[in-house]
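Can anyone check this?
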Amino acid sequence: MPTERPQGVKDIVRLFNECRTRGQGDRELPVITLLGRRGSGKTTTLRWLGYLASNRPNAFYDFASAVPKRPHEVAARLALGLSYRLPRQPAVHFPRLALGLLVVRAGLTIDSADARRVRAELKQALRQAKENTEAYERTNGVIEGVALLQDLNVVQLPGLNLVLKLVQFGLPRLPVSVMWRTGLTWYADSPNRPVDALMKLNELAGSEAAADVEEVDRLLCGAFLEDLRDHYARHPRDKECVVLLDNIDAPQGRKFLDLLVRIREVNASSDRANDPLLVVATAANARSVPGPYARDFPAELRIRTPEQASYTDWQDSIPRPASTTKWHWYPVQLRDLTEPEVATLAEQAASTVVRATPLIHRLSYGHPWSARVLLDATYAIVVERSGGAAELRHILDHAPPLPGPPDAPTDSEDPAAVGEPMTLDEAARQYLLRDLSEGQRAALVVCSAARAFESAVDAGILEEYDQLTKDTLRRDIDARLWLIPPVPEDANTRGGQGSGYLEHCRDPEENKPTGVLHPWLRLVLLQALAQHEPDGSTGWVAAHTALRDWHRREQQTQHHRLDALYHSLALNDLNQVVAHLAGQFTELPGTDQWLYELYAITAAPMLLPVAPRQRGERDPSPSDRVRELAARLAPGALEEHWALTMLVTALWLAADPRNRVANSTPELNSTIAAMFHTLAALPHSGAAGLLREAERYEPRP
């Protein structure tokens, strides 16, 4: 059994079981493609599906773990896994594929002038292969050998060609004459002599012409599917056979699946029964996956959430008639973990870190790899160092040994692999952005200053970067699924995802931003931005000043007006923000409109979170921290608009998860609620709306 059962994949498993279960008669099957940003647990999920399918024919192949293979070589490795002998089940045999691979790879010299000699030579090669296989099984044990080959996608057997050895393992326990007739009958799809097809295949295999190479792959992959179809016709089963393909966005990863889809199209046009092969693949780059067009989705690809996904949903999406083959693909994006799912991970790690779940989820927004890393860091701080909740406020500065990435091969550049001393935020940036160029990573740090990614591009803060970086940055970030829909800013955002109850106050004439950076990625990028020389060309002050000034120069729509104040607050200009909100307090038509502006502005990032306290020093109360910051940044506003200045400062602090302690209720909630009550007592305040807002921060039974 796998060591880990992944969280948050219940609906993926449901979709998998729907597609895997054979109903009455044959049916079309989708190419399920699990999309996920780096660290989303794609490989972990795929291996869990493999465990669930382990009692029926299944095979796993990772395109990133080996030298790129041609489609027919991938088919051979999958055939090896699918032919594994399961208890009380007839083994899946591949006589057509075995014969074709033998002709292509065994180094036979076929002389078309003598058909009888050709047949004799091929039969002798089959006998020899079968004898070698049986001898190897007697010496080494077939189960051990097959398991090794299936897990590693590699075999090193002295004196034996790799593909020939795969053929040998895949040869059925049938007389050579039966294998010969079965394979030859399928290849002889012409009025010529049956052996002519094999002589032609041998000739094509020796050619380097692109068309001939593709034809060999097509014939052998077609034989692979025909063997599966024939087996299921003779041995009805209750489940489809399953192949799990990891990292199809690696080089050569798409070629096998593109050919599979093309063969399925040809078979359908010939009224052949559908093949019983369910493919589940993974990819971290949405641009590498075909599929129906959908505007405003990553790479303009129609992507379903796990909750939306079903076999019926895929069937309903098929156009009639279909003008392309993209309908075969069914992209489903893995989601981030919920807070209860992070709590389950915490319980599996150690019960002592469960209380930190709200903090860990708020920091990572449920990104699976990051949640695990934060849990490990929490354990090191709380258990191994006997630290308190206040120390967890600076968890991103912690430098624990990191666990290996769950869905990527480790290498010497991975801090998790070599144990280099590195703070958690540094390690996260290195791992999450390893697919980007150095220039793209540097440019992305500057872009993190903007609320919406498109604002960073439009404001011209990337001018010092080369044109290639500027042209490809948004495309590559979008394709790797790091851009998400904007998070609504309201009271609930301070605890995670906003519920959007104030979105009706958004100017209807303005479009929503097309995408914002994933909050966890943006947080660790802002950490890097804060470490740059503040007044340098790529520092915090320069970036936010440029964005503020650009928003001020643009036509003063609601979006530009609020974002200019947002960047002013990021530059510590608390006076200006309080003055604006004080003026709007009585001028806006309703309380909701004022609250919308309040939350939109106070979502601004902070250069530095709460200053760390030395061990033994008394940690100030939440209200004391708010008062200290307000007095330092805006003493005049604090004196003139005490309650409003305290409220703005408290909301600003609460918006940054680095300022949160590891308790179930955010510690600034009582201060925020008190300030709303104080404002509600002022004349012309819209007291009912403010009191209702205060209730959102008050503890509930």
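Reply from J.R.: I decoded it. Residues 142-164, 405-419 have pLDDT under 50 and may be disordered.
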